[in-house]
Design goal:
The protein is α/β, with parallel strands linked by helices and 781 residues long. Helices cover 39% and strands 16% of the residues. An eight-stranded parallel beta sheet has the order 16-15-14-13-12-11-10-17. Strand 13, helix 8 and strand 14 form a beta-alpha-beta unit.
Length: 781
C-alpha cells in the first residue's frame, strides 16, 4: 500500500523560495544553502523572491517568526510554536505552500536543514510529504564538533575552504551549532604536505565561515610550554595567543585542556588562563574561557577543585569534561561548583586507546583497522550521548577527521532530541547524503557495520552478509553515487571487514595444521616438524584468500584520497602515521601466532640436543595447559576469559571507569609477540582488575602464572588475593614479556574460592592505563 504522505506529496519542482527583504546574514546563508543544495541533487534551480509571488506553482516561505506576518501569504494550519532559542516550525499548507519559520536566525538555519532532510530529491524532481507539521527546539544547548586543520588528522589537512564550507553546511543541516578550531601551534607538526593554505590563514577562513552561518566558534588551545610559573614563559604565551585572537573575525569561546597535551600544575595553569581571558576579551568582550582537568593526577585534581571552590574565579566560564579525566562525568559535576556549567568533550573518533573504546572488539580488527578507522557506531554513540546529557550543557566532540562522520550526525541528532529514533536519523543521513533510494538500505548498512565489530570475528558470519548488502548497492549505484565519499567510506569498511574475517579463518586454520604437525615431532624429528610447520604458516602469504576483496579495498582507498583527501596509507598518501587512520598499511598484519612461532623456531634450531628441542616444542604445544585442576584465561580473548570480572560494562559505563575492558598492543616490528600478548584485560586509573575462581579445592595449594602485557610497561603493578593478602608488591613489568610465577597463600583459597585483584600505583595522572594483564594460569601444585 502506498503511504498516505506519498499520495499527498507536494511537487516542488517549480517552487519559488520567498523570504523577507531584510534577512540577517546567517538567514540569507540559510536560504542560499537551501537553493544550492537542492540544485546539487536535482539540477533544478529554484527562484528566490522577497515578496509573495502571485502565480508560482509552489511557494516555500523562509523567515524568522518576527517577520512572517509582514510578507507571507495566507496560512491557516501553522503548528503551535515551541519556545526556545534555535527552535523552528516547518509545515505545509494546501495550495502547495511550505513554511519554514525560525524562532531566531539559527532557528531559520536549522529549519531549512530539517526541510532539506525531509525533501525527496532525485534528478529533475523534488517533492515533500504533504502532511508535514513540525514544531521543535533543541533539548541540548551546545551541539558541536572539533574540526582540526592540522597534520595529525586523517583527512582534514587536505581540505580547501570550499570543502570546509560544505562540511559546515552538512553539519548545520543536522542541527550542529558550533565548531571548534585548533591554533597553528599544537602537539603537531608545523606543516603538512596536504595543506592548501597555511594554518593561520585557514583558521581565519573557518572563523569567517562560522560567522557567515551564525554558529559558535570555539578554539581548543593547549598550553604546551614547559613552565608557566616562569613570567617570561607567560609573557611569550600571551603574545602568541593574542596574535591568534586578534586575527580571527569570530571567537565565542576558548577551551584549554589541562593535559593531552600540556602538563601544568593547576595553580599555574589557572593563573595563566586568567591573564589569557583578560587578553581575549580585549578583542571579543563576550568570549568565554573554559578549562578541563584532563590527565591530572589525584593530587592535581584535588588542587583544581580547591581553586574552583575557594576562589570561585569570575573569569572562568565553565569546565570541560574530556578524555583522561580520572573520575566520571557525574562525579565531576558533583565536585565542580554549580555556577560553572560543564561542557562535554567526547572522543567519537577513536576505536581503541580512547575514552570510549569499541566494546568487545576482536583483536583482528584492532591490529589491522586500528585506532582511527572508519567507525560508524550509531547505537553506541547515541547511548553515550544520552548517558552524558544530564550532567552537561552540551558537547563539542573530539574529532581527528571524517572517519567519524556518522557519529557526528548521530550526536547532533540525539543532541537536538535525546529521544530521537537513531534509525530515523540514519535514514535522513542516507537520504540526504547518498540519495533517496538509499534511505533505508544505506541506513541499515551503517547499523550492520556497527554489528560487524561486535564479538568474536571468527564466529561473526554477519560480516559477509554486510558485504553482500553493500555490494548490491554498489552494483546498482550510478557513477555519481560511486564518487560520493560517504558511500566510498562504507564500502571500504565493508570490504575491509570481510577481507579480515576471511584471513582470520584461513590463518587460524593454518596455525592449527602447523600445531598438529608439531605434535608429531617425536616421530618425525624436531627439525623436520619445525620445517613443515613453517611451510604451512607461509601459506598465509603464498596462498592468500579473498584477493578480489583486498584489491577493492586499495581501489577505494585511492578513491577516498581523491574525493575527500583521506590518507589511508603513509607511503601512498603521506599520512602522518599508521595509527592516524592509515590502515591500508596494516591490512596484511598476521592474524595468528606465525611471527612468534617463527622466532621460537629459530631459537629452538640453535639447541644442540634433540631432547632439548622436543621439550621446547612441548612448551609451545602446552602453552595454555594449566595442568589437572588448574585454569587458564587469555584475558584479551573474548572467548577465553571465564574468570574475569567484567563489571557494569559498556551499556552503563562506556568509559570503562568501573569495568574491565579489552585493550590492545600494536604489533612490534622488531619483536614478535604471541597473539595472546597483543591483547589484554585492563582496569583504568585506581580501579582494580579482578578475577574470581569459585569451587576450588580447599585443601590444595595453588600458584599463579601471569603475563603482564599491554602498552603501559613502565607502570608498576601489584597483586592481592582478596582485599588484603599480598601475592606480590608493586613490581616492574618485564619486557620483553614473559610469564612470572607466584605462590598463592593458602589462606586465600581456604574458603574454596579465590579473588585476585591487580592494582597500579595510586593517584597517577595521564591516560589511566597500566593495570594490564594478558594471560593468567592458576596452577594446582
Amino acid at each position: 500500500m502506498i503511504a498516505l504522505s506519498l499520495l499527498l506529496a507536494i511537487d516542488l519542482g517549480g517552487a519559488v523560495v520567498v523570504s523577507p527583504p531584510n534577512l540577517a546574514g546567517p538567514e540569507k546563508k540559510a536560504v542560499a544553502m537551501l537553493v544550492e543544495e537542492v540544485e546539487k541533487r536535482t539540477e533544478l534551480r529554484w527562484q528566490t523572491a522577497s515578496q509573495w509571488p502571485a502565480n508560482a506553482p509552489a511557494v516555500i516561505a523562509v523567515a524568522p517568526a518576527s517577520a512572517l506576518g509582514a510578507f507571507a501569504g495566507r496560512f491557516t494550519s501553522e503548528p503551535a510554536a515551541v519556545s526556545g532559542a534555535e527552535g523552528y516550525r516547518l509545515w505545509t499548507e494546501s495550495g502547495n505552500k511550505v513554511f519554514v519559520v525560525g524562532n531566531d536566525a539559527r532557528g531559520v538555519l536549522f529549519g531549512v536543514g530539517r526541510l532539506l532532510r525531509s525533501l525527496r530529491m532525485t534528478k529533475g524532481a523534488v517533492t515533500l510529504p504533504g502532511d508535514l507539521r513540525i514544531a521543535t527546539a533543541p533539548k541540548v544547548l551546545l551541539r558541536g564538533h572539533q574540526l582540526g586543520y592540522r597534520p595529525k588528522t586523517n583527512s582534514y589537512d587536505g581540505w580547501t575552504v570550499a570543502m570546509w564550507e560544505q562540511y559546515i553546511r552538512d553539519l548545520a543541516v543536522f542541527g550542529t551549532n558550533a565548531i571548534e578550531l585548533i591554533p597553528p601551534r599544537s602537539d603537531d607538526d608545523a606543516d603538512s604536505p596536504h595543506f592548501p593554505l597555511p594554518p593561520m590563514r585557514m583558521m581565519i577562513e573557518m572563523s569567517r565561515l562560522a560567522g557567515d552561518y551564525g554558529i559558535d566558534l570555539w578554539i581548543w588551545y593547549p598550553a604546551m610550554d614547559r613552565d608557566y610559573s616562569d613570567p617570561k614563559t607567560v609573557e611569550s604565551a600571551l603574545k602568541e595567543w593574542s596574535d591568534v585572537f586578534r586575527q580571527l573575525p569570530r571567537i565565542d569561546a576558548v577551551f584549554v585542556p589541562g593535559g593531552d597535551p600540556g602538563h601544568t600544575q593547576p595553580k599555574h595553569l589557572m593563573a595563566l588562563l586568567e591573564k589569557q581571558a583578560q587578553d581575549l576579551r580585549r578583542y571579543r568582550p563576550k568570549a568565554q574561557m573554559w578549562v578541563s582537568p584532563q590527565s591530572f593526577s589525584q593530587a592535581w585534581l584535588d588542587e583544581f577543585f580547591g581553586i574552583l571552590r575557594n576562589e570561585q574565579p569570575a573569569w572562568l566560564a565553565g569546565v570541560a569534561a574530556g578524555p583522561q579525566i580520572r573520575i566520571s562525568l557525574a562525579r565531576l559535576r558533583a565536585e565542580v561548583p554549580k555556577r560553572y556549567p560543564i561542557r562535554d568533550y567526547p572522543d567519537i573518533t577513536h576505536s581503541r586507546h580512547s575514552q570510549y573504546p569499541v566494546p568487545d572488539w576482536d583483536t583482528a580488527f584492532a591490529i589491522t583497522e586500528g585506532r582511527e578507522g572508519i567507525n560508524p557506531r550509531p547505537m553506541g554513540e547515541a547511548r553515550i550521548c544520552r548517558l552524558m546529557r544530564p550532567h552537561t550543557n552540551g558537547f563539542i566532540a573530539y574529532s581527528e577527521g571524517c572517519n567519524d562522520d556518522v557519529n557526528k550526525i548521530v550526536w547532533s541528532g540525539v543532541g537536538w532530541d535525546p529521544d530521537a529514533d537513531v534509525v530515523e536519523v540514519l535514514r535522513e543521513y542516507s537520504r540526504y547524503f547518498i540519495g533517496e533510494r538509499y534511505a533505508d538500505p544505506f541506513a541499515q548498512g551503517l547499523l550492520a557495520l556497527e554489528r560487524n565489530w561486535q564479538g568474536p570475528l571468527l564466529t561473526n558470519g554477519h560480516v559477509y552478509t554486510t558485504l553482500e548488502q553493500f555490494r548490491a548497492m554498489e552494483r546498482s549505484a550510478s557513477p555519481r553515487e560511486l564518487l560520493n565519499w560517504r558511500f566510498q567510506q562504507a564500502l571500504y569498511r565493508a570490504y575491509y571487514d570481510a577481507y579480515t574475517r576471511s584471513r582470520l579463518i584461513h590463518e587460524t586454520g593454518l596455525e592449527e595444521q602447523a600445531m598438529a604437525g608439531l605434535r608429531d615431532a617425536r616421530r618425525a624429528g624436531s627439525l623436520a616438524a619445525i620445517n613443515e610447520a613453517e611451510r604451512i604458516l607461509e601459506r598465509a602469504k603464498s596462498q592468500g584468500v579473498a584477493g578480489d576483496w583486498r584489491a577493492r579495498v586499495f581501489e577505494l582507498a585511492e578513491a577516498l584520497f581523491q574525493s575527500v583527501r583521506m590518507q589511508l596509507s603513509v607511503a601512498r598518501y603521506k599520512a602522518i602515521g599508521v595509527e592516524r587512520g592509515a590502515n591500508l598499511d596494516s591490512i596484511d598484519t598476521p592474524l595468528n601466532n606465525a611471527p612468534w612461532l617463527k622466532q621460537r623456531f629459530a631459537e629452538i634450531r640453535k639447541l644442540d640436543a634433540e631432547a632439548e628441542r622436543l621439550r621446547a616444542l612441548e612448551e609451545i604445544l602446552d602453552w595454555t595447559n594449566p595442568g589437572p585442576g588448574g585454569f587458564y584465561d587469555d584475558l584479551g580473548n573474548l572467548a577465553r576469559q571465564p574468570h574475569l570480572v567484567r563489571g557494569p560494562g559498556f551499556h552503563d559505563d562506556p568509559a570503562f571507569l568501573q569495568s574491565s575492558l579489552v585493550g590492545f598492543r600494536v604489533p612490534l616490528p622488531t619483536l614478535a609477540l604471541r597473539s595472546s600478548w597483543l591483547n589484554h584485560a585492563e582496569a583504568l586509573n585506581d580501579a582494580p582488575l579482578m578475577m574470581h575462581y569459585p569451587n576450588l579445592d580447599r585443601e590444595a595449594r595453588y600458584k599463579v602464572r601471569v603475563v603482564y602485557g599491554g602498552d603501559a610497561i613502565k607502570r608498576k603493578i601489584r597483586l592481592l588475593a582478596g582485599d588484603s593478602i599480598e601475592v606480590h608488591p608493586l613490581i616492574d613489568k618485564p619486557f620483553p614479556f614473559r610469564p612470572l610465577e607466584f605462590d598463592i597463600p593458602p589462606a586465600a583459597t581456604a574458603g574454596g574460592e579465590l579473588r585476585l585483584n591487580w592494582y597500579v600505583e595510586a593517584g597517577l595522572g595521564g591516560n589511566g592505563r597500566g593495570c594490564q594483564v594478558a594471560e593468567v594460569w592458576l596452577v594446582r601444585q
